Amino acid sequence: MSHALHRYGTVENLKNDFTLFARTSRWVNREGGGPKLRKILDIILSEKPLNFGSSKYGKNLMSGLDLGEFKTTLDDAVGVVCCFSDRESFKRVLTKLKEAQIGISIVVSGLIEEVFNIAKEIDLKPHTVFLSLGIHGNKELLPDGKVLEITSMCGHGLVATKLVKSTIKKVKQGTMAVDDGAKLLAQPCPCGIFNTDRCQQLLELYLP
Amino acid sequence: MKIDSEKCISCLECLDYCPVGAIVEDAESVMISQDECVECGVCLRASVCPVDAIYMPAESKTYPRSIRAELSDPGVQIPKLRQGGRGTEEMKTNDVTGRYRRGEFGMTLEFGRPGTGTRIAEIEKITKTLCAMGIQIEEANPVFYFIADQKTGQMKPEVLNEKVLSAILEFKIKEDKLVEVVNALTPALEKVNTVVSWGLISRVAEDGTIPVLSRLKDLKLTARPNAKINLGLGRPIVEE
Prior knowledge:
The structure holds two protein chains of two kinds. Chain A is α+β, with helices and mostly antiparallel strands.
């Protein structure tokens, strides 16, 4: 699925928003891929990702994913997915993955210019790009763009507009801290690609 | 999903969690509109109900309603394809599968995204357009199995009113078909009563550029500044 592709936002607020998906192919390298995925997960964890999770498991790190148990499920998993909000950690992870030569496909999302610059810095040659050509159809059905910037951080569309609006209301009223709001909104996204740092910055705009 | 009215204490804690706003309250109780619910399971997984009144009834797993969960809850496997998720590996593994070669573009139309959901009938409006152009819909995507007639793009009647959080139409075209396809799809998408997130897959050129970007601009289709990028670390790599 197109998952991390259609994240809505401005160049400015998408700048430190990176997702990473290590993905096996059922036709090429899924079978016996468990140890490779565990190795990739260890590399990712060494650079402290902001969040990660599993749609199969139904939980992310912030909603109670048990890391030990999760590792055991990787034998029949399609991959490992996570997000970063720091360019340098993200670059170090990619460098380590390149050096490790594991052979599993690595797909990232972020600003095209930023990702291509990082790739150039560490001598990686991007292979294929998936472009987002925007939203079409009946756009009157869409919520406000500021709400979309938050909901679209879950690629499966599981973060509800109503939940974002009620969280914004609580932040405005001063009854909820922005970091608590960001953690609450990250919970429905089982894959863990919901960037809580970015969400926090977006919620800060509503502080009284 | 359903709410057990015997257990529900109308605390309204679950109300905000539904991505399609299917949880509604009336004077007496809180209920889930069975017509609107896409069976994504968010309300249940949120674990906010203090009396465990939310549950998935047996009928949610019966065809054709079963397609709601299959396309809305990423944890549910699609039996026919033995895979989870609404789409395929698409470009995620293109460095090892070579699914999209130079001279080809992949296209995805994700109906109901972001955040509105879609009836399958809305997708049919576009499968008819694509099939009339002789375009083959991707077989490894669950939507393929909703189509009754691959020549006309007509969907199976029993799935037309089913509502899902999103569903992706995937297909491949030759580079020289880009103008024709964009010119046919742009007006057709305006007639769809849901939102559609449009994506295009392209190989990165040998010199590290993305030549299709300027072609898209000429077609008044501006690509967003963010994208998904396969970094070419899979092995053995397909270079063509």
